[in-house]
Here is the input.
Amino acid sequence: MVSVNVLVSHFPPDERVFLFLQGPHGSFFPRLGRALQSHGHRVLRINFNGGDRATWGGQIDYAGRESHWPDYVAGFLRDRQVTDLVVYGDCRPKHVLAIRAAQAIGVRVHVFEEGYIRPDWVTLEREGVNGNSTLSRDPQWYVERARSLPPVPSFPPIESFQTARGWGAFFYYAEFVLQYWRFPFHHSHRPSDPVAEGVEWLRRFQRRKEEYARTEAALSNLKTADYVIFPLQLDSDYQIRLHSNFGGMRPAIVKVMGSFASHAPASMRLAVKEHPLDAGLNDWRKITMEEAHRFGVADRVDFIEHGDLQQLVQHAHGMVTVNSTAGTLALIEGKPVAVMGNAVYDIVGITHQGGLDRFWWDPEAPNLSIFDAFYKVLVDRCLLHGAFLSEEGVLMMIDAAVARLTTEPESAVRLANPAVAL
Here is the structure.
């Protein structure tokens, strides 16, 4: 097996060769690439479709068959003497195979993802994120390491650009379709048809007035109510598809609704919040209310299409989630959180550990000292303050991301799991 030292021996000791694959919608990845180049590093990018190409032109197009990708990327990493692989999300099929090839020859792997802490944080972690993270689940591990860390700084909120995010996705998939002739063998990692999703976004835009009116009516039911918030996740999210036992959101809705019907106090309401980036391919309002009627609790269930999740959390009794990072919004507020999937913050002393049925009437509130230690360690090791689709958010992340990518501090991976070799 070729070691990483052999691979980089032709370059100056401080020069690194970064290979970027798919990134978040927007300008963050190309701007980060240029910043790395300005620090004297080589930067390469492989495009898989027209959306990639439109985001970051002038790089390398992979137009081969899916079955040829493993051999192609393994050869590319060796031939180009790549030292660092950078991806957004570690569960996309091509990313999984590239990470496997990189780890086999000692290439460092850096994974970006939406922040473990919400809002205004981005995750950048070595080797894997979410269910693939090597962070410890031992509360004492965080407490010990947080002793030498400063308090988490207080930042003003970054302006939300959910509309820009929706349009960014729309134009990305428009280029995906328009340039399909360049990449005839490429298949999206998303299970839904990008064209159908784009059409649904336009339909949602047309009925937004009706949705906002329904949201206001639902919110009025909660003003003086004792309620638990259940934020839906995207059905296509790998957090649901791979890092939970549900495979999709409907089985999760069924589980929550059944437990709520059987065990929640009669005075309690359940507020089901739609994900802000859901295109509407599934009618989650209809699905939710069908299940609520089936379990006999439709009069105590409120479906909310829009609205500020943070405000909903502030007045909630607690939160039930599969494994959404929205759970950290509730934890920051000191609210109990029940997790049904695999989440990095599902730790004894932080989340409810007594099972979903017990949560409704006897929830375990977070131990704020343990959560504070968890928060400090994450900020120190794998969080960047910023946002992918905000000019302000991108600018504040670039320098910090370059520093994280190019320095070699004592790794959180080694500390959390000494058996993992980098």
Summary: The chain has 18 helices and twelve strands.
